[in-house]
Predict the structure.
Amino acid sequence: MHKDIEKILFDRETIAKRVKELGEQVTKDYKDKDLVCICLLKGGVLFLTDLIKEIDLDLEIDFMDVSSYGGASTVSSGEVRILKDLDASVKDRDLLIVEDIIDTGITLSRVVELLKSRGARSIEIISFLNKPDRRKIDMDVKYVGYEIPDYFVVGYGLDFNEKYRNLPYVGYLKEELYR
Ligand code: IMP
Ligand code: MG
């Protein structure tokens, strides 16, 4: 275990098992659809690459990087800054947005609005982790790996100051690292 980690929440084997279940569910639900998995950078990358190997369908992947202006205080402005846009059109396609974690839901709600405006046929969300206690915007999240309490976690794509994304497990950071 990494020296900065206090406790492992989900280890490699647990994650693999859950991702397989999610992939099987998506496979059932998207049988007759035109699936595009849209990965939100950078956190969603590890989950995306594991997930698509468990989806037994033809699909495409695309990537998007967005940042919301200043977080909660800018809810009403409805602004999302696109740092990297999708490569392909999403018109009439069935989109599955792949996220590492949903916290306030602000970023994601804006991405959904944006993709709707581009004429997607359907839009659903799959997030490896969900912190429902922190939600500021009510979001319909179709697939969730795990619901977790409001503690900061890292690993499996999730970072603290861009570090720890490569850990093959999800864990709590040691408290002294926040001070
Ligand atoms: P929100 O839902 O718009 O508040 O933003 C969610 C984003 O916040 C995620 O994509 C993560 O990048 C980041 N985030 C939220 N909670 C955590 C956490 O516990 N660890 C690491 N990143 C987090
Ligand atoms: Mg993120």
Summary: The helical segments are 12-29, 45-52, 106-117.
